[in-house]
Automatic annotation (TrEMBL):
This is Fructose-1,6-bisphosphatase class 1. It holds the Pfam family FBPase_C. GO terms for cellular component: cytosol. Belongs to the FBPase class 1 family. Keywords: Carbohydrate metabolism, Cytoplasm, Hydrolase, Magnesium, Metal-binding. Binds 2 magnesium ions per subunit. Substrate binds at D121, G122, S123, S124, N214, Y245, K275. Residues 205-332 form the Fructose-1-6-bisphosphatase class 1 C-terminal domain. It comes from Marnyiella aurantia. It catalyses: beta-D-fructose 1,6-bisphosphate + H2O = beta-D-fructose 6-phosphate + phosphate.
């Protein structure tokens, strides 16, 4: 099929605008700002090897982790694109300590949307030329429009998301998102700078055979996770499963959604809530997973129903094919009963 016959992301956004009741085009403009920022980050990620932007920025973020230069750059790019285009009234970023209030429009704060973003997830992979990603999550504010945003606008449950998605800066660059009507994926043609609809209505295959977890932490895992891993490795039926772990959530999730698999970042001995952040990483991925026929859990509860209490809250994360996540949950429950 020629590129002329393919639908672009811009056309798709406009086509779907009417899915939103009383749509004013504000949400479409917000998605367009994310699309634009992703192209700028893509350009910078691609030239990371030649420009002097690889390596640490010398700062630590709120989690106490060292920030890579590209983390800082990606954070700036998304915040600038979203705030200057006046499409959101607030932004919370994994890389910033606190949320940002955005006074947009002639009367200030007129947008009804807030965005939570992990601007460059998996950034420890940049130095070695491995795929990284951007994750975003969009909510309607809950406080009065026209006033400064408050913490409660960001501390919403995953079930209240209006849209969520990711950009994977991989062998090709893709943007994948949902507004609650399935998941669609768009691939960037770098020569034209245009995203085309390449993966309409993405779904997890019925059966999955891949498990993705950092097995180096095995000795620190809860017994339920250890038992589930043994189950994955057992020679029986369609098992053993295949182990694949990139260490970039976006890339691991993307592969598992296409090929069928489960991603796990559990709690471990000295980290009872695991590593991943509920608001910036787990909720958006959970929304995508459910919209693609999969499931996301903290081992016991649905991720999107967890009550957030702080911006940088962490949670254990089990996400992927429904059947696989439910099996893992079964092992987690057995472990609790034994205790
Ligand atoms: P980051 O937001 O600091 O990049 O951390 C999140 C990343 C995920 O993309 C990835 O799945 C995980 O951390 C890898 O962690 P580990 O190296 O502990 O396996
Ligand atoms: Mg991250």
């Amino acid at each position: 099929m020629s590129e002329n016959a393919l639908q672009t992301l811009g056309e798709f956004i406009i086509d779907k605008q009417d899915d939103f009741q009383y749509s004013t085009g504000e949400f479409s403009r917000l998605l367009s700002a994310i699309r634009l920022a992703s192209k700028v980050v893509n350009r910078d990620v691609n030239k990371a090897g030649i420009a002097d932007i690889v390596g640490h920025a010398g700062m630590t973020n709120i989690q106490g982790e060292q920030q890579q230069k590209l983390d800082v750059l990606a954070n700036d790019i998304f915040i600038t694109a979203l705030s200057q285009r006046e499409v959101v009234c607030g932004i919370a970023s994994e890389e910033s300590d606190d949320f940002i209030d955005i006074k947009c429009g002639p009367n200030g704060h007129l947008s009804k949307y807030v965005v939570l973003i992990d601007p460059l997830d998996g950034s420890s992979n940049i130095d070695v030329n491995v795929s990284v990603g951007t994750i975003f999550s969009i909510y309607r504010r809950v406080t009065e429009p026209g006033t400064p945003v408050q913490l409660e606008d960001f501390l919403q449950k995953g079930v209240d998301q209006v849209a969520a998605g990711y950009v994977v800066y991989g062998s090709s660059t893709m943007i994948v998102y949902t507004t609650g009507n399935g998941v669609n994926g768009f691939t960037l043609d770098p020569s034209l700078g245009t995203y085309y609809l390449s993966h309409p209505n993405m779904r997890f295959p019925e059966k999955g055979k891949i498990y993705s977890i950092n097995e180096g932490n095995y000795s620190k895992f809860p017994q339920g996770v250890k038992n589930y891993l043994k189950y994955c490795q057992m020679m029986e039926g369609d098992r053993p499963y295949t182990s694949r772990y990139i260490g970039s959530l976006v890339s691991d999730f993307h592969r598992n959604m296409i090929k069928g698999g489960i991603y796990i970042y559990p709690s471990y001995a000295n980290a009872p809530t695991g590593k991943l952040r509920l608001l910036y990483e787990c909720n958006p991925m959970a929304f995508l997973a459910e919209q693609a026929g999969g499931k996301a859990s903290d081992g016991f509860n649905r991720i999107m129903e967890l009550e957030p209490t702080e911006l940088h809250q962490r949670t254990p994360f089990f996400c992927g094919n429904t059947e696989m996540v439910e099996k893992a949950e079964e092992f987690m429950r057995i472990d609790v009963v034994k205790d």
